[in-house]
Amino acid sequence: MYGVFLEGPKMSEYRRVLILAETHRLLVKVYNEAVLSEKTCREWFQKFKNGDFDVEGKDRSGRPKIYEDAELEELLDEIRLKHKRNLRLF
């Protein structure tokens, strides 16, 4: 029988990948494809391995939200009204 036998760290990594893939497959089977990507599943496994069990989204860098929904809706209404006025001029 010809085959490759993995030992030590390589076998641990192989098992980890198999467990991760099987976990992702089961989640997709139960909750459908929209549940989470394989990449997210991998990232969560890494976080859990490091002792971080928080799966809630963290604050992200970048531009913060400026308007509340009601304020944003008012602003959009103003833009729509100006757009209609501009169209009438032509």
UniProtKB/TrEMBL annotation:
Signal peptide: none annotated. InterPro entries: Mos1_HTH (IPR041426), Transposase-MT_Hybrid (IPR052709). Pfam families: HTH_48. One of its GO terms (molecular function) is DNA topoisomerase binding. Transmembrane segments: none annotated. GO terms for biological process: DNA double-strand break processing; DNA integration; double-strand break repair via nonhomologous end joining; mitotic DNA integrity checkpoint signaling; replication fork processing. This is Mariner Mos1 transposase. Residues 21-52 form the Mos1 transposase HTH domain. GO terms for cellular component: condensed chromosome; nucleus; site of double-strand break. It comes from the Eukaryota.
